Amino acid sequence: MKPYTFEKSEALFERAKKVIPGGIYGHQSPLLLTKGAYPSFFARGEGSHVWDVDGNEYIDYMCSYGPIVLGHRHPRVEEAVRRQGDLGNCFNAPTERWVELAEYLVSITPFADWAVFAKNGSDVCTYATVVARQATGRPKIAMCQGAYHGAHAWCTPVTSGLTPEDRANIVYFTYNDLESLQRVVAENHGKIAGLMISPFRHDAGHDSELPVEGFLSGVRKICDDHGIVFILDDVRAGFRLHMGGSGELFGVRPDLSTYCKAIANGYPLAACLGRDSLRKASQEVFFTGSYFTSAVPMAASLATLRELEATDGIERMRAIGEKLRTGLLSEARSHGIEVTYSGPPAIPYMTFKADAGRFDRNKLFCGECSRSGVYFAPRHNWFISTAISDQDLERTLEVTDRAFAAVKSQFVA
Amino acid sequence: MKPYTFEKSEALFERAKKVIPGGIYGHQSPLLLTKGAYPSFFARGEGSHVWDVDGNEYIDYMCSYGPIVLGHRHPRVEEAVRRQGDLGNCFNAPTERWVELAEYLVSITPFADWAVFAKNGSDVCTYATVVARQATGRPKIAMCQGAYHGAHAWCTPVTSGLTPEDRANIVYFTYNDLESLQRVVAENHGKIAGLMISPFRHDAGHDSELPVEGFLSGVRKICDDHGIVFILDDVRAGFRLHMGGSGELFGVRPDLSTYCKAIANGYPLAACLGRDSLRKASQEVFFTGSYFTSAVPMAASLATLRELEATDGIERMRAIGEKLRTGLLSEARSHGIEVTYSGPPAIPYMTFKADAGRFDRNKLFCGECSRSGVYFAPRHNWFISTAISDQDLERTLEVTDRAFAAVKSQFVA
Asked: Exposure check for chain A: N or C terminus, fewer CB within 10 A?
C-alpha cells in the first residue's frame, strides 16, 4: 500500500493559517505531530475508523483526544441525539435530561451526592477550586508540578499572557511523592483549600505513571487530617477505567471529581460531582454558561454511559488495550527495540527508551503508522474505544511492525 | 384562559434539588424569576414558541437568554446540523467547517483579520484579556463597574470562593463616563493591557443604556493614545444588532471582539475575532478545550449567519422590536403606568419606574405574562428572534395589556 498523502489537508491548512492564528491551536496543533505524516482536517468517522479530507482512512487510537469512547457515531448515542434534537436543545431552563443525568451520575458514583454541568474540562476543574475555597475559606490550591488541569490561567502549561497573581495561590508537589505533599502542606499550614490530582499521572510528553501503593490513600489521609478538599481530576481518564470514577480502580474516594471527554461520546459536556459536605459551598459560588443546560449533550451522555454500563465497555477497553500492549511489546522485542509502555491498558502511551525524553523515534514511529492508516499521537497518551475490533487490532499490528522496522532502519542505536 | 400551572415542573425541581445544588444554578436560576409563575423545565421548541414539561405553550422573548436568534429548530440550521452530524462532529483535528467559518466571520467583520473558536462566552472573554496582556506585556484590564463579561473569577458578579489576587489586575470605570476612564488610565499609567466593554450597557437587573454620542469613539481614542487593546464584548448583543459586529452600529471598531449566544442558534460555540496586530500574541498564548474544533456547532453557525444575512434578519428583529416597544409603551400609557423601556429594539428591557430599582411590579408583570403564555424575564434584558410573527405580537399585546391591568390593580401607586 502506498503511504498516504495529504494534498487537501495541506491546502486547507494554508487557508486556515490566513484566518486563524497558527491555523490550528491547542492540543490538536500539527506542531505536536510528525511533520508531513498527519492529516490536519477530518471529513467523517464511523465506529473505530475516521477519514481525513483526502479520503485516507485510519483506525483511531486518539478518539478525538478522549471524547469518543464508543466509537464515532455510535447508533444508540446518535439515536438519543436525534430524538432530543427533534424536541430542541437549548431553552430558557433545563429539560428533564438535566435531572435524569444528575440522578444517574450520582447513582453510579459511590462518593457523590450531587452533580453540576458545564461544557469544558477547564470549566469544571476551575469550578472545583472555587467550591473548595468557598467551603474552607482558604486561598490555596495544591497540584502536581507538570499536571494538566485545563487551559485556565491558574494551571495552563504555557504562561504567555499571564500575570504573577494568576498563580499566587497555587502550590506544587510531586506525583507519587507523599513527602513532597507533606512538605507543601506544612509550608502552607491552614491555607490550602483544595488539592487537585489526576487518578494516574498522564502529563503530556511524559511516560504515564500509575499511583504507587499507598500514594492516593496517603493523599486522602493528608487531606482529611488538614481539612483539605480532595479533588479528583477525572477529565481525561473518567469512564475509561471504572464507571464509578477512576478513584474506584485505585481505592480512593475524592470529595469532588471532574469529568469531560468520554462523558458523552463527543458531545460537549463536562460535569463536577461532589459530596453533601460541599453542597452549600456549591450553591454559594457563581457558575453559568450559555449552553450549560443544553439537552442534546445530556441525552448523548445518558445513552453513552448506559451503553458502557450495559455492555461492560470498561472491561472491553481494558481487554483491547491489553492485546494492543502485548502485540506492540512483542514486536518491539522482536526488532530489538526498547520501549516504555505506560498507563492503564485503556489509556496507554508508548515511548522509545533511546529517545531519552526527545521524540525523534516516536515521531517517526507514529508518523509511519499515520501514513499507513493507524492514528497514534507521538507526544500524548492514546485512547482506546470499545469500537476497536479484532480485525482492527490485527491490521494495527501489521502497520506497527513495519513502523518499528522503519525506526530500526533509520536509527542505528 | 386559565393561568398556567406547573405541577410537573415543580415535581422535577424537587428531584433536581436532591442531586444538583440549588436545583438549577446560574442565569437560569428560578430565584431570579417570579415565584410560582414560571416553568423550571422545558420539553420542546419550534420557531418562536416553546412548551414546558406541563404542556404549557409560550411565545419566547428570552430565546434561551440569547442563543436562539432564528427561532427554535430553524429548518436550515437543523438541516446543516443533520448533514454534519451524519459525517461526525468531534475528531482528532478540525473539519473544513473550521476554515469556512473563520473565513466567513472575517469576511463579514470589517475590523477582523482572524478568528478563534471555543464553547462559552467566558472562554473567549478571558482569552481576549490574555491576548491583550501577551501583546502589550502589561498586566491590567479595564472594565466597567457592574458589567458582565462571564463567569470567571476576574469578572463574575458573585465573589464567593474568590481570592483577592483574582482581581488584583482589574481596574474599573463607568459606562458612558469618559472622565472615569481617563482617571483610571492616568492612575494606571502604562499598565493597562486591554479594555473590555459591551457595545451598550446591559448589566443584569439595571435598565439598559445606549452609548452616548462620542463615548465609544472617545474610548477608542484613549485606547489608541495609550496602546491599550480595545476588546468589544459582543457575546450578548452580537448578530442581533449588526452582521459586522455591534460596534458597526455605534461607529466604533475594536481590536478584539467576542461572540457567543446568537452565533449558532443554540449550538455551543463562541468566537474571538482580532486584528493582524494581535495575531502573534494570539499564537503565543494557550487556548484549547475538548470540543473547541467540533464541527456540528460550526455547521450550525454558518447556516445561522448566512440565513440572517440572506433574509436581513437584523432589520427584521429591529422591526419586531419596534412594534413590541410601541405596543407596550402605548399600553402602559393607557393604564397610566410609567415604565422605562431601554436597550436597542432587538434586545429590549422594560422596568416600572415606581419599582425604583426593586422588581415588585416587574415580577408581577412578567409572571402574569408567563402564566398566560408570553415568556419575559423580570431581571434580565429580553431577546427578539426573527421567528416572532405578527400573530405572536398581537397575542403578546393582549397578554401584556392584562398584565399591566394586574399591576395597576395590585399596586395603588
From this structure: C
CA distance B336 to chain A (A): 31
**B92 contacts in A (CB within 8 Å)?**
28, 42, 50, 60, 62-65, 375, 377
Which residue in chain B is spatially nearest to A99 when comparing CA positions? Answer: B16
Which positions in chain B touch A139 (Cβ < 8 Å)? Answer: 163, 165
CA distance B412 to chain A (A): 32
Judging by DSSP bridges, how do beta strands B170-173 and A57-60 pair with one another?
unpaired
Strand partners for B242: none
Residues ≥6 apart with Cβ < 8 Å to B109: B244, B245, B257, B273
Angstroms from A227 CA to nearest CA on chain B:
16
Contact across the interface for A87 and B43, Cβ inside 8 Å: yes
- Which CATH architecture does the domain made up of B7-62+312-410 adopt? Alpha-Beta Complex (3.90)
Q: Coil, helix or strand for B341?
A: strand
Please count the residues of chain B.
413
Q: Are A229 and A93 in contact (CB under 8 A)?
A: no
Q: Do the Cβ atoms of A93 and B288 come within 8 Å?
A: no
| ipTM entry | 0.98
SS3 content of chain A, % helix, strand, coil (to 5): 45, 15, 40
Q: Do the Cβ atoms of B41 and A78 come within 8 Å?
A: no
Give the separation between CA A411 and CA A337, rounded to whole angstroms: 10
What class has domain A75-310?
alpha beta
Q: How far is A216 from chain B (nearest CA, A)?
A: 26
**Digitized pLDDT (tens) for each residue of chain B, 413 residues in all:** 789 999 999 999 999 999 999 999 999 999 999 999 999 999 999 999 999 999 999 999 999 999 999 999 999 999 999 999 999 999 999 999 999 999 999 999 999 999 999 999 999 999 999 999 999 999 999 999 999 999 999 999 999 999 999 999 999 999 999 999 999 999 999 999 999 999 999 998 899 999 999 999 999 999 999 999 999 999 999 999 999 999 999 999 999 999 999 999 999 999 999 999 999 999 999 999 999 999 999 999 999 999 999 999 999 999 999 999 999 999 999 999 999 999 999 999 999 999 998 999 999 999 999 999 999 999 999 999 999 999 999 999 999 999 999 999 999 75
Across the interface, of A15, A116, A139, the residue whose CB is closest to B25 is: A116
- CATH 1.20.1260.10 matches A7-65+312-410: no
